[in-house]
Amino acid sequence: MKKDNSTLPLKASLRRKLLQEIDNPIVMETHGGYGGIWSKCYYAIRDGVVMEKEPQKAEALAMQRPTWAVYECDCVNALRSGAGAHLPVNFVDFDPYGEPWSTIDAFFESKREFLPVLAIAVNDGLRQKLKMNGGWDVQALSEIVTRYGASSTYRRYLEICRELVEQKAGKRGYTLTRWAGYYCGHDDQMTHYAAVLRL
Questions:
Q1: Is the pTM of this model over 0.70?
Q2: If you ran DSSP here, which 8-state letter would residue 73 be given?
C-alpha cells in the first residue's frame, strides 16, 4: 500500500488537541517511524514509549528522545508481551498506515496498568482496501463485513471505527466520553480518529 504522507498536518493537529484532554501525558507510539509526529506533538513530554520495527528508524528514535523507552520490535507481539508496561501510559498513538485493529487489540488485551483516563489517536489506512471490497480479507473486520456488507463497511467506516473502539475498550471497563474523526488523504482513503476513554 502506498503511504500517503499528505495528512501529516491533520494528524499533528488531532493529537495536539487530544493532548489537552490529558493531565501529565505519558505517551506510547506504536509505530515511531523517523519521529515526525514526536517533533510536532510530543517533544516536550519527558516520559514515553516508542516502538519501531526497522533498525535504522529505531536508532534514530533513540537519538531523538533519550529519556523515552525505545523498542526495536514488531509492536503487536511486543504489546502482547507487555512492552512498555513499566510506565503508566495514558496516551496511545496508533499509526500503522494499514489496518490498526491488530495493534489496538494487542494493547487492550495485554497485561499492564490501565489508568482511569486514557486517550487514543489512530491513523487508519484500511479504507483504501475497503474501497476495493478487500474487507473480507481483514480478520479483524470479518464479523463487521458479514453484518454490514462490504460496500456499507466502506461507506460507514468511521461509524464502524467508533463502534469497534467502544467494543474493544469496553472489555477493559472503559466508556468512550469524547470522539473525533474524519476521512482525509487522497480520495478520502485515510481515516483519522481520536477518543478519550474513562473507567
A1: yes
A2: S
